[in-house]
Amino acid sequence: MLEEQTVKKLIKCALEQRKFSYAPYSNFCVGAALLAENGTVYTGCNIENGAYSPSNCAERTAFFKAVSEGVKEFRAICIVGAPKDETPNEFCPPCGVCRQVMLEFCGSDFLIVLAADQEKYQIFTLEELVPMGFHL
Ligand SMILES: O=c1ccn([C@H]2C[C@H](O)[C@@H](CO)O2)c(=O)[nH]1
Ligand SMILES: [Zn+2]
């Protein structure tokens, strides 16, 4: 369970982070806010590249920032995404690669908050987004 004030904080962080998105090729800007078990929020944006494949999603940017600082236990992530000059209106579910990264570090009760704004959001468990996920 996430307290409503925590959800609101994560949505605010993800919306703010979305402004730093570097997406000159897709013009689709994504922001993420990852809540660690220790209470720290790690933010991330998508970062594209002219060679395309080196591009990184907002979610993985947030995970890799946290893991690179020694933090590997997480409670939830909030994701917001929309075309560059638009206000988010629809949900932006994580891509398959990011879902696999979530599986690496998170349990099935990890929460994914898909949000458009402070009022419009929906919360899913990792188990719901990745049934029968692959683990080594
Ligand atoms: O959940 C998502 C979906 C897409 N993107 C990025 C990847 C790419 O830069 C752009 C368009 O796919 O959006 C994310 O960061 N997270
Ligand atoms: Zn992704």
Automatic annotation (TrEMBL):
InterPro entries: CMP_dCMP_dom (IPR002125), Cyt/Deoxycyt_deaminase (IPR050202), Cyt_deam_tetra (IPR006262), Cytidine_deaminase-like (IPR016193). Coiled coil: none annotated. Pfam families: dCMP_cyt_deam_1 (PF00383). The keyword Hydrolase applies. GO terms for molecular function: cytidine deaminase activity. Residues 5-136 form the CMP/dCMP-type deaminase domain. Keywords: Hydrolase, Metal-binding, Zinc. PROSITE patterns: CYT_DCMP_DEAMINASES_2. It catalyses: cytidine + H2O + H(+) = uridine + NH4(+); 2'-deoxycytidine + H2O + H(+) = 2'-deoxyuridine + NH4(+). Its cofactor is Zn(2+). Its EC number is 3.5.4.5. Gene3D superfamilies: Cytidine Deaminase, domain 2. This enzyme scavenges exogenous and endogenous cytidine and 2'-deoxycytidine for UMP synthesis. Belongs to the cytidine and deoxycytidylate deaminase family. This is Cytidine deaminase. It comes from Faecalicatena acetigenes. The lineage of its organism: Bacteria, Bacillati, Bacillota, Clostridia, Lachnospirales.
